[in-house]
Amino acid sequence: MRVWLGLLVALVVAILVGACAGHDWATPADLLRAIAGEPDLRSRLLVEWRIPRVLAAALVGALLGLGGTVFQGVFRNPLAEPYLLGSAGGAALGATIALLVPLAAPQSLALPVLAFAGAWGSTVLVIGISRVSGAVDAAGMLLAGVAVAAILGALRSFLMLALSDETVSLQIVLSWVLGGIQTPTWPILGLLAAITAVCLAICLLLAGRLDVLGLGEAMATAFGLDVTRFIAFAVLAGSVVVAAAVAFGGLVAFVGLASPHIARWLIGPLHKPLMPASALVGAIVVTLADALSRSALPPAEIPLGLVTAVAGGPFFIALLARRLRA
Amino acid sequence: MTDLIASDLVVKRGAATLLDTLSLSLASPGAVALIGPNGAGKSTLLRILAGIEAPDAGTVRVGDRNLGSLPNAVRAATIGYLPQHFDPHWDLTVADLVRLGAERGAQRRSDSIEATRETFELVSLWPRRWSTLSGGERARALLAMVLVVDPPILLADEPAAALDIRHRLDVIRTLGQRGGERLSVVVVHDLDLAFRFFDRVVVIDRGRIVADAPAQELIADPLLDRVFAVRFERLRTADGWLLRPTTGDPSLRSG
Fold it and tell me: N or C: which end of chain A has fewer CB within 10 A?
C-alpha cells in the first residue's frame, strides 16, 4: 500500500515539476492561475501547450512501462524491451514516409497513424515469418525480429537518401527517431488517455497467464495454457501498446526496458500488480526526462530519447552486470 | 473414466526415433513406475501422456475421450504433471505458486489451498520465495502446486532425482501411495525405490516397452541386467529383494 501511495505521489510531483519546467520556468502559482482560466498569453501557453505535453509524456511513459512488462513476461528475458520485435524499425519507417513522402493527409495525422501502422505491422510481420518458418517459439520470434528490423532499417535509409533533397528534412526524420513527445490538443490527449486505459485493461487481462508462462513452457502447458497461441496473442497485444506509445512519443529508449525492473523491485514479480506499477514508473520516468529535455539547454530541446538513453545506459549496464554475476 | 491408454505412439526427432509404436494401458487406481536407461524415451512418453507434446503418430485416450480433444482447462485439472526440472523464471512465493496451481482448470477452491498448505507442511514456507528454498522444500512446494487440485492422474518425471535420500524417499513414497486411490505414473531413477513403492513396473528401452510386470516378478528377471547393461546382484532382505549393481558391462546390451 505504501509503495502505491509513494508511486502516486511521485507521479504527481513529476507532473508538477514537468509543468513548471521549460525554457520559461513557471511557478505552481502560475499553473494554478493558468488552470483557473486566466486569459493572459503565458497562462494560455501553459494550458494549451505545456500541460497537455506533460500529461502526454506521462501517458506515453505508462504505455512503454506496460509494453515492456508484456514483452519481458512473454520472452522471460530481463533484457527484453518493447522494440524487440522490429516495432522500432517499423515505426521509424512509417514516420520517415510521413515526413518525407508528400501525402494527401496532413502530416500531423499521417505521422502518428503511419508510425502506429509501422510499429504494429512489423510485429505482425515478425510473427507471420516465425509462423511460416515453423519457429513460433520465443527464440524464433527474436531471430525473425532481428531480421525484420535490419530490412526495415535498410528501407528507411534508402528512403532517406532517395527522398530528401535538403538536409532539413533529414534532420526532422532524425529528431523524430530520437524520440520526442508530440504536444497534443486536448481532444487528442483525451484519446491518448482512453487508449492508455484500454491498454492497461488488456495488459491486466494477460497478467495471470503471464504468471503461468513464467513457470516454464512445459509446466504452463500442463497447467492448461496454450503456450504458442498465448505468446502470439500477447505479443500482438503488447505491440499495440508499444505502437500507441510510438505514435505519440517517437522512439524513447530504455524506458520500456527499465520500468518493469524498477516496478519488480518495488512490488515483486506477479504481473497483476506489476502492470499498473510499471505503468506508473514509466510515467514518472518519461515525465521527468521530458522536463529535462525541454529545460536543460534552452531554447533548444534535447531529443527525449537521448535523455533516456544517457540515463538508461548505465542502468542497462548495471542490469547486465547483476545478471552475469547471478 | 480416468484410465490412460496410449496406442501406437511414435515420436521422431530428425533421424532418431524416440518412441517406436509404443502402447501402454494405465488403469486407475494404480501405482506405476517407469524405468529404463537414459535416453530410453521415458520423459518423452510422459510429456505425451500429459498432453504437453503431440506424438507424430498414435493416440492417447483419457477415459473415453481423446487427450487431444480435451479442453485445456479440463486436461490441466485431470492430469497433474511434475517435470524433471522446474525452475520458475519469476521468483514467486510458495503461496503464489500453489495459488497458480489451484487456479488451473475451471474451479478455484480456496479450501483446497488451505488443506494443501497443511498436508505438505508449507505453513512456515508460505511467504518464502522460490530462490530461498532448499531442494527438499522445493520438491514439497512443487508437489503441492501440482496436487492442490487433486488431479485423478499424476505423471511425475523423476521429481526426486536431485534430492538427498530422505527427501527422495518421502517424495517417491508419497507418489507411490497416491496410486492407492488415483493413477500415479512415475519415472523413477532409483530401481530399489521403484520396486519397493510401486505395484507395477514398466521397463522402457529404445522407445519400446520391453517389460511390464508386477514389481516382485520383474525384479528377478535377467532382462534388467541387459537393459541397464549392468550385472545386478539380487539380495534378499526383510523388505523384499534389493538390486545391487556390480559392474557395468556394455556387452550385456547386445544379448
Answer: N
